Amino acid sequence: MAAPETRGTLKVESRIDVMLALLGAAPRPIHGITRLVKLLYLGQQEARADTWLPPSEHYYGYRPYKYGPFSADIYEDVELLVDSGLLQSRPGGKPLAEELAEWREAFADDTLPEPGPESYESEVPSIFRLTDAGRACAESLLESLPRRDRDALAKLRDRYDSFSLRDLLVYVYTRYEGMAEKSEIKKDLGLE
């Protein structure tokens, strides 16, 4: 992980640096760990973020899980960034169950099954925002990337930040079907 006091000289050397760059690619915070996990997955799939790392470093090892692509390493890296003062995490946003209920009320037909509370994250999701030091690191990391890679991250954030969590999950599940094979919410998303 890059140190904040070396602004202007940083380069992407670890998956944590990729996370910082992703967070810094747009001025908006990221709402919820599920969204962060999916954005990092899409960063690998659509922005080729895993290719920015030195050969000795590994990107997040995703596997299919309850809500699609998952890597427990992301949780550890978030904690490390929070502990190092580069990232703030505070409660906020809507739990996945609440977003799905709103979508169902507004758009879904009566044939969709009702979600069970045990199927969703019960904790209140976090809002992830870079601190000033984290923003400085992210800007330096982004500057070190070739323009095409910076543009790919900015495009990724511009596109998917506007998606509701439900729409983001539907996109990931339909575009990367293998990562949805163990999902517990495909029916609730209208995909079965």
Mind sketching the topology for me?
Blueprint: H1 15-24, E1 30-31, H2 33-47, E2 63-65, E3 68-70, H3 73-83, E4 87-91, H4 96-106, E5 126-130, H5 132-144, H6 147-161, H7 165-175
Antiparallel strand pairs: 1-5, 2-3, 4-5
Helix pairs in contact: 1-5, 2-6, 2-7
Structure description:
With 192 residues, the chain is mainly alpha-helical. The protein has one domain (4-93, 126-180). It has seven helices and five strands; from the N terminus they run αβαββαβαβααα. It has helices at residues 15-24, 33-47, 73-83, 96-106, 132-144, 147-161, 165-175, and strands spanning 30-31, 63-65, 68-70, 87-91, 126-130. It has a three-stranded antiparallel sheet.
Descriptive tags:
192 residues; mainly alpha; 3-stranded antiparallel beta sheet; two-stranded antiparallel ribbon; 7 helices; disordered N terminus
Question: What fraction of residues sit in β-strands?
Answer: 5-15%
- Assign a percent range to the helix content: 40-55%
State the total count of DSSP E strands: 5
Write the element-wise H/E pattern from the N-terminal end onward.
Answer: HEHEEHEHEHHH
For the record, the count of structural domains works out to 1
Terminal Cα separation, in Å? 41 Å
Radius of gyration: 17 Å
Separate helix tally: 7
The residue-averaged pLDDT reads 84
Q: Could you list the spans in which at least 5 consecutive residues all have pLDDT below 50?
A: 3-7, 106-124
The biggest sheet, with number of strands, parallel, antiparallel or mixed sense and barrel status, is: 3 strands, antiparallel
The rough form would be described as: globular
Adjacency order of strands in the biggest sheet:
1-5-4
Structural classification: mainly alpha
